[in-house]
Amino acid sequence: RKLVNIAGINIDNITMEQAVERVYSFIDSGKNHSVYTPNAEIMMDGITNKQLKEILNSADILVADGAGVVLASKILGKSVAEKVSGFDLAKNLLIASSKRPIKFFLFGGKPGIPERAHANVICDYPGAEIVGTRNGYFSQEDESEIINQINNSGADVLFVCLGAPKQEQWIHKHKEQLNVKVCMGLGGTIDILAE
Ligand code: UDP
């Protein structure tokens, strides 16, 4: 793994193609993995917030979402290979899954949004399989039921769209209980898929 250290946060120096391959290697493995895609604002928060920094650095793939992070790496003389945004990675996985199947679960967004995203994905990405959806508005008492729903779906890849840093904290907290292979923090991606 080639990492670029930006003020204590280790970003993967990885191309889109390599990121997709890594996700497939996670799917073939026996355990759960985390993929985070911080933008410049979340990177700034992570630089000053020790707990968030630890969460970001615990990721199995950490990619720079946004030109700001790529620019920061250039200024530091440690250019990252290319910009791999959360939405683009999600899109590339949906496309790739028509040839090498992946079971996706869409978690997050306002009520109705993940269902709309599901309907659009079926039309826009023929062959992509969504095995469950759940909106991102819940109380703590609902969490065990949400985790059961995800675990019973048989999903490989969980899109977690609760906004940053809530989604990263949620994934970090529940990683061991989630019976999936990859949890991805993807913020507003669910809203774009629902458009
Ligand atoms: N969201 C959610 N639960 C929450 C807070 C936010 O599901 O408790 C969803 C929100 O509806 C939106 C997504 O998280 O679909 C991303 O929110 P935001 O625009 O803040 O995301 P970011 O800037 O992190 O991409």
TrEMBL record:
The chain holds residues 2 to 196 of 247 of the full protein. Catalyzes the conversion of GlcNAc-PP-undecaprenol into ManNAc-GlcNAc-PP-undecaprenol, the first committed lipid intermediate in the de novo synthesis of teichoic acid. It catalyses: UDP-N-acetyl-alpha-D-mannosamine + N-acetyl-alpha-D-glucosaminyl-di-trans,octa-cis-undecaprenyl diphosphate = N-acetyl-beta-D-mannosaminyl-(1->4)-N-acetyl-alpha-D-glucosaminyl di-trans,octa-cis-undecaprenyl diphosphate + UDP + H(+). The keyword Cytoplasm does not apply. Its EC number is 2.4.1.187. One of its GO terms (biological process) is teichoic acid biosynthetic process. The keyword Magnesium does not apply. Keywords: Cell wall biogenesis/degradation, Glycosyltransferase, Teichoic acid biosynthesis, Transferase. It comes from the Bacteria. This is N-acetylglucosaminyldiphosphoundecaprenol N-acetyl-beta-D-mannosaminyltransferase. GO terms for molecular function: N-acetylglucosaminyldiphosphoundecaprenol N-acetyl-beta-D-mannosaminyltransferase activity. Belongs to the glycosyltransferase 26 family. TagA/TarA subfamily. Pathway: Cell wall biogenesis; teichoic acid biosynthesis. It is an enzyme of class 2 (transferase).
